[in-house]
Write a structure and sequence with these properties.
It is a single chain. By secondary structure, the chain is mainly α. The chain has 15 helices and ten strands. Strand 5 and strand 6 form a beta hairpin.
Length: about 475
């Protein structure tokens, strides 16, 4: 026993120190090994089992497509706001063009677009994309499904040779979205969509046959999130409120007023007086405005009605207008001109512009996709709205002509007038203002960084004049 050596209790061995360094103190421990087979790809979201077998659209969602449409049609306030937004977007003027190259002036890009037969062919096609409705009507159908159910859909109808014949709007509420093992859209030639008719699977579509265009996409959902669905609780409240008011006027037992009778008046006398008044006033609007004698001691007591209906509807209108992107000015009782102008500016930035960008993105995708029109260098452009105030438009035109960004003949062509240079023996006029004959907007400035300028020689000035006249001659129509 005397030869035994006692190890100190707080002394650790080398193995303990290595284990502690590896695992750490109060460490989270190593994760359990994955249970999925090796090589399993990651999923977009944790979808339910056999999801493709449950073919009804929006399976698992709290609200279906029919309910969303019923809410949008049953709530008059959000319906008028949606219709107004559809009017604004569908009335925009548009045209196709070739994408400008880097450093290319718009005049040259426009000239290339005018000479490209594909641009003219696309313009003719989208005049009536489905051979039934014009572009404005066709756009309104897409916007309806975008704002109400967020499931705008187009069927690609082709000729026997494979060319696109029509882009037919399809009810997005009948389309069930399919997924693959990763939770994403199956690629061609696998079916990616299925149309449900009468509650039964009817037709399968590939991504080449159907264009599905939700606007508000979320990574954990297969379907979009429309403004109607976002404000569903408020819509239901307003619908219930409207039904309550209708029942108040149709079936309510609360009279407009009551009149206490004298104490010595019997019940039979009161009933006879009531019948006489009803017989005299019922259906006779002229008699209602005349004086009617009542027994002595009677006093009319009006019943006070609720007063918050207008305020509640105004608050709902503000919410709906904000979500859709329309201005709430028509629904606000007190408003001034500055506030109305600010509301219009906000409406363009938050509502009209995003919808125009969504529509442009979808049309550009259809035009540029290799399996559709296969024109990656062509895009659709919305034309700017003309200023409604003549004074403001005249000021803008004067500034553009003065600084040389526009020619007077361009503005005259816009207003339907003949060019000025028809009266100047074919010599194109030069822009007025500080722009010299040897300089135009398309020619870079020759000034130095220190503020001095390099005066051109006679040869340079003559060549500059020729280039300026050539550039001016190309500016014939409206700007992009």
């Amino acid at each position: 026993m005397a030869n035994e050596v006692e190890i100190a209790p707080n002394r650790t061995t080398l193995v303990d120190r290595l284990r502690s360094a590896w695992n750490g103190w109060y460490n989270p421990s190593a994760p359990i090994p994955p249970v999925a087979p090796s090589g399993t790809p990651p999923r977009q979201f944790d979808y339910p089992l056999v999801l493709n077998q449950t073919w009804m659209p929006r399976t698992g969602e709290k609200v279906g497509f029919p309910q969303l449409r019923m809410m949008a049609d049953g709530c008059y306030l959000i319906r008028v706001i949606i219709e107004k937004m559809k009017d604004r977007v569908a009335s925009k003027k548009w045209h196709f063009r070739l994408k400008p190259k880097g450093g290319e002036f718009l005049a040259l890009s426009k000239e290339r677009s005018n000479n490209d037969p594909r641009v003219q062919a696309l313009t003719n096609f989208f005049q009536m994309p489905d051979s039934i409705h014009n572009f404005q009507q066709w756009t309104r159908m897409l916007l309806e499904d975008r704002l109400v159910i967020d499931a705008a859909t187009l069927e690609v109808q082709r000729t026997k040779g494979g060319d696109i014949l029509n882009l037919l709007p399809v009810d997005g509420a009948t389309i069930n979205v399919l997924i693959d093992n990763t939770g994403r859209r199956p690629t061609y030639p696998l079916p990616a969509y299925r149309q449900i008719v009468k509650g039964l699977p009817a037709v399968d579509f590939t991504t080449r046959d159907l264009v599905y265009m939700p606007g508000n996409i979320r990574s954990h959902k297969l379907y979009g999130y429309s403004p109607v669905e976002q404000t569903l609780a408020l819509i239901l409240t307003l619908i219930y409120k409207t039904v309550f008011l209708q029942n108040f006027y149709d079936e309510s037992n609360i009279p407009l007023a009551y009149m206490p009778m004298p104490e010595n008046m019997s019940t039979a006398e009161m009933l006879r007086l009531i019948r006489e008044m009803e017989a005299t006033l019922d259906g006779n609007l002229q008699q209602r405005s005349k004086i009617y004698p009542v027994p002595f001691g009677s006093k009319l007591e009006l019943i006070k009605k609720e007063e918050y209906q207008a305020k509640f509807e105004e608050w709902c209108a503000r919410i709906f207008a904000f979500v859709v992107g329309e201005t709430a000015t028509p629904f606000v009782q007190q408003n001034n001109r500055a506030t109305a102008q600010q509301s219009d500016d906000t409406r363009e930035e938050s509502g009209e512009v995003p919808l125009l960008k969504w529509l442009k993105g979808e049309i550009d995708m259809i035009v540029q996709r290799p399996d559709l029109f296969n024109a990656p260098d062509i895009e659709i452009i919305w034309e700017e709205d003309a200023e409604t105030d003549p004074l403001k438009q005249a000021q803008v035109d004067q500034i553009n002509v003065t600084i040389g960004t526009r020619l007077a003949d361009e503005l005259r062509h816009r207003d339907g007038l003949s060019p000025i240079w028809e009266q100047s023996r074919g010599n194109p006029p030069t822009p007025s203002g500080a722009v010299s004959s040897g300089e135009t907007q398309d020619v870079p400035s020759d000034g130095n960084e220190d503020g001095t300028s390099n005066a051109p020689t006679n040869d340079t000035k003559q060549s500059g004049e020729k280039a300026a006249k050539a550039a001016i001659a190309q500016k014939k129509t409206l700007r992009y």
